[in-house]
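Journal club side-thread
Mid-discussion, someone asked how the predicted structure for our own chain would compare to the paper's figures. Pasting it here so we can look after the session.
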Amino acid sequence: MAIYGFAPTGAWFMLGVPGTALYGLANPALQSLMTREVGPSEQGQLQGANGSMNGIANMTAPILFTQVFALAIGRFEDLRLPGAPFILGALLLVAACVVEWRATALPREQSRGLAPV
């Protein structure tokens, strides 16, 4: 996403395609990991929560990213950053990684008797 956002030419933009293609594998892998963490009686709740989060994201993302693009080519045109929606996407992915790490790594460390970071 960051490559897309900062790409000065189409050739640079194309360098980001393999990474984005690999990112397409993330959702099935994440669902597999999540289903292992809950019991058989909780699978429906997990899938319902995943579906709800996807629905919320599918409603809010078009509004958010088109508004960021409108600002990038409008009010903040002097910054010359038409890839701002991609940069925002990259920042959101980094934030999601931090949240995931805090939600999974820290409880494991605490269960082993290690002090939290």
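Post-session note: The chain has one domain: 2-111.
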